[in-house]
Amino acid sequence: MGKKVVVALGGNAILSDDASAQAQQEALIKTSKYLVNLVKEDYKLIISHGNGPQVGNLLLQQQLADSEKNPAMPLDTCVAMTQGSIGYWLANAMTRELKHEEIEKEVATILTQVIVDEKDEAFKNPTKPIGPFLTKEIAEEQARETGAIFKEDAGRGYRKVVASPKPIDIYEAKTINTLVDNDIITISCGGGGIPVVGQNLKGIDAVIDKDFASEKLAHLVKADMFIILTGVDNVYINYGKDNEQKLTNVTVKELEIYKSEGHFAPGSMLPKIEAAIQFAKNNPGKQAIITSLESLGKLKGHEQVGTIITV
Ligand SMILES: Nc1ncnc2c1ncn2[C@@H]1O[C@H](COP(=O)(O)OP(=O)(O)O)[C@@H](O)[C@H]1O
Ligand SMILES: NC(=O)OP(=O)(O)O
């Protein structure tokens, strides 16, 4: 049986400048072509994905349409709604691509509840960017009007930020693993999972970072590899500067030194680095890889792909 791999899809694998359903479906059709290459290499795929732009846009729509007769959905439910929409688009695209390649496999999207701690410090310090990028002026105006908090996001503009607690457990992990062990491609932990607390899995307003939720899933299903897909082929030190340097094979120890030197932007690359370090530490001898969708095509046999992190 092939290697079990968790693949965390970054926002750019789903959304371009056009936030329409059609444009996102077209982006996911392109994404699926790359993912099916992994299926051809006999990897057992467990796919997760982000939802930052999508959940923020949905929340805005809900708030604009809010009325007594048609109340806005809370954030936990908006996360569930984006799990459903993105999960449907991706499952649909994967099914079509598998059929085109005459590969007989099923794809299942699982609405996933991720257990967090309601006492997590994240609820006092919102850091997770969601929704559109705004200018500083518009962000300040919206902050005055709504009381929401906006922060600058990796040099790309200002975005609304919400609480982003760490994942403690994944309620559907056993279900996901059962499906994968029965050769079904799964899509789960969408948007980091629906944040829930306590024995009764009560929903709570937050957006969990999908890289952390994906690492937790990779650990719980005993994945052989953890791949984080994003907008760059590799992680860099001195990123964006004249002396930037591509990282290829790097140890946890080296990466922790680079992290302490501030090379990884919070809210963008930093969570990926922390999730990759966590997986490598939890799974000595196994690889975490940070790379782009386009690089995946090179993942044939033992070709070097992206930045490989090992303990
Ligand atoms: N040191 C770094 N090396 C590579 N990319 C970095 C680094 N620091 C920040 N980045 C930026 O972070 C981005 C990935 O974060 P983000 O776009 O938020 O992730 P996602 O792909 O999950 O949406 C990269 O595309 C790059 O623009
Ligand atoms: N939930 C989440 O981490 O989404 P993004 O990757 O789009 O920020």
Large-scale geometry: globular
Distance N to C terminus: 25 Å
> Main beta sheet: strand number and arrangement?
8 strands, mixed
Give helix % range.
25-40%
Strand order, main sheet: write it out. 3-9-2-1-12-16-17-15
**Poorly predicted parts:** none
Bound molecule kinds, no repeats = adenosine-5'-diphosphate, phosphoric acid mono(formamide)ester
Helix count from the secondary structure assignment = 9
Beta-strand content estimate? 15-25%
Radius of gyration: 19 Å
Structural class: alpha/beta
**What's the helix-strand series?**
EHEHHEEEHEEEHEEEHEEEEHHEHE
The whole-number mean of residue pLDDT values reads 94
Instruction: Please tally the β strands and state the result.
Output: 17
GO biological process, one term: L-arginine deiminase pathway
Catalytic activity: hydrogencarbonate + NH4(+) + ATP = carbamoyl phosphate + ADP + H2O + H(+)
Family: Belongs to the carbamate kinase family.
Pfam families: AA_kinase
Task: Explain how this protein is built.
- This protein has 311 residues and is of the alpha/beta class.
- It has nine helices and 17 strands.
- The strands form four sheets. An eight-stranded mixed beta sheet has the order 3-9-2-1-12-16-17-15, sandwiched between helices. It has a four-stranded mixed beta sheet with strand order 8-4-10-11.
